[in-house]
Structures are given as structure tokens and as C-alpha cells.
Amino acid sequence: MANPIRWSIAHWTAVLPVLAIGVLAISWGRSLSASAVIVIAVLLAGAVLAAVHHAEIVAHRVGEPFGSLILAVAVTVIEVALIITLMISGGSKTQSLARDTVFAAVMITCNGILGMSLLAGALRRRVAIFNSEGTGAALATIATIATLSLVLPTFTTSRPGPEFTPPQLAFAAVSSLLLYATFITVQTVRHRDDFLPITTVDGGAGEVIESEDHESPPTNRQTMISLGLLLIALIAVVGNAKSVSPTIERGVAAAGLPQAVVGVIIAILVLTPETFAALKAARRDRMQTSLNLALGSAIASIGLTIPAIAVASLWLPGHLLLGLDPIQMVLLLLTVVVGVLTVVPGRATLMQAGVHLALFAAFIFLATNP
């Protein structure tokens, strides 16, 4: 979890949510000009970043394991809100939006963020050192949840197409939630040492250490202010997403891009703060922290989003298509195989970083040119 930075009432993370909620009140239910959409989109992105920031402050005050849950739930609320808002307004074109967004989150975290983190670590120490036990557990959880939720719908026969029946969807949702809860318990309680940073000395592994960050928790007043601003930011995100969603969909269609690109945009927007935090940790020689952020974000994205979307599907119009297409399944399989080969040794070089970044580039290219 990224360290919360100290802030004042004049800090941008306090100002932007208030501005975003004010613009929402003014623009709600009105026809928007192009300039108004641009302003709202900028404030929407700022509100997402501010929401994650304030969730981190509250999480830092609460402590583990509940702190990680607060941050994950806040990010998931944003992701689910954007998905549901676009699915409501987009009709049948957005039936696969949840699948595309969750798959994009897996590719971004397991190849994009992971690859950049390994690159930063390898450039700093020639060999990036991390704990294979904890990182391997995270990768195994991602592979299992992704397969149960995104691969199996393509092969089930109870319904035509890549769609679960209600009992199958309920099973996938409960399984995802239980696996996520189990991982959080293992990471924060039973096997916490497997996820702690380790020192590196001349390219070799050293002793396990707790953390180099000893910033004192925020005060009760700061925590309550952040909690209030977090709620304001989440409301602003949901409302402003509804306002700009038609423009986003028209823009993607006008550019001749596949509908799946919308899911990629949502995933990038939601995961931007965690990307910066992971890269910062890698540059400070905290590779395990960096990988925890990358893979933990993927687990939360699948393990919490799929159950939330499953519940929302009870009243969402149309079908919920979760099964991956052949290109996506090939990329997921290759990501898991390469991830295993990267994680097992507990050390990685520029070669492993390059392979993951190549997979990430392939995902972006094929998302726009399937």
C-alpha cells in the first residue's frame, strides 16, 4: 500500500473532489458541450486519484488487515461504478464491458506494472530480488480467479455464447470472493513474512525487513476529513462518469476502435495511482512492495469486481458476457506461464522485464487491432 502523503485543506486531493461534486450538481441532466465534457473528464480523473489517496490515508490509520480491504474496496467501487454506468447507457454494445475491464486490469498489472517494476529494479541492482513464496501465491490466486471467472464461460454449455447461467455466475462470484479473502488473510496474518521486502546486497538476497517507511498514522481529524472527502470523491466519480459515458462511447466508435478499448481506458484510469506507487517502491529498491502492489491490484480487481458485477446483473439490462475470446485467452495463458517462470527463481533481470513489457505491448496493440 502506498504511503499517504501529508496534505492540507488546500491540497489538490481536497479541492478536486469538491470541484467535481460541484460540477456534477450543475451539469446533471443537461446536454453537455464538448468543452464541458473535457472539463468533467479532467475532474473525473482527478476525483479517481483523490479517492484512492484518501482511501490510503484511512487505510493507514486503520492498519492491517482492514487497511488493505478499505483501499481495495474503494478502488473496486470506482471500477464497478464506471462499468455499470457505461453498461446502463451503452445497451447491448457493452455486454462484454465487465470482462474487458477486468481482463485489461490483469494485463496491465501482471505485464505492464510488473514489467516496469522489474525494469526499474534490474536497472538499479542488475538483478531484482523478491520473495518467490509470496509473489507465487499472488500469481496463483490471479490465475485461478481469472480462469474460473473469465475462461470457463467460453466453454460452459448450459447457455450459448460466453455467458454463465445464474447458478454458474453465483459460483464464480462466491469463489472469487473467498479466494480474495483467503489471500488477504495469508498476506496480512498467517504468512505475512512472505510478503515483506527483503534487502539486497551486491545483487544477492539479504534478510527480511519490515519496511523502511515509519511515517506516523494520520490523526483522527485527518482520518475523518479523508473519509468525508473519499465519499464525496466516489459520488463525484459515479455521477460524472454517467455524464461523460455517452461521449466516451461515441469517441471510441468515431475513432474506429473496438468496444473493448473502453474497458482498457477504465482499467488504466483506476490503476494509475497504484502504478505510480509500484514504480516508486521499485526505484527505492523495495521490489517486494512493488510486486505486492501490482499483483494485489489484479487480485482485488477480479476478486471484488466479479462478485459486484454478479449482483448488479440482477437488475442490469441485457446479457453479461464474461468469457474471453481466443486472442485474450492466448494472452492470459502466456502471461501466466511467463509469470511462473519469472516468479519461481525469486530474482529477475532485464530479460524478464522485457518479456513482460512485450506482452503488455501486444495486449495494447491487439486491443486496438484485434
TrEMBL record:
Signal peptide: none annotated. GO terms for molecular function: potassium:proton antiporter activity; sodium:proton antiporter activity. Residues 36-188, 226-368 form the Sodium/calcium exchanger membrane region domain. InterPro entries: Alkaline_pH_Ca-Antiporter, NaCa_Exmemb. The chain crosses the membrane at residues 9-28, 34-54, 66-90, 102-123, 135-156, 168-186, 224-241, 253-272, 293-315, 327-344, 351-368. It is found in: Membrane. Keywords: Membrane, Transmembrane, Transmembrane helix. GO terms for cellular component: plasma membrane. It holds the Pfam family Na_Ca_ex. It is a multi-pass membrane protein. This is Ca2+:H+ antiporter. It comes from Allocatelliglobosispora scoriae.
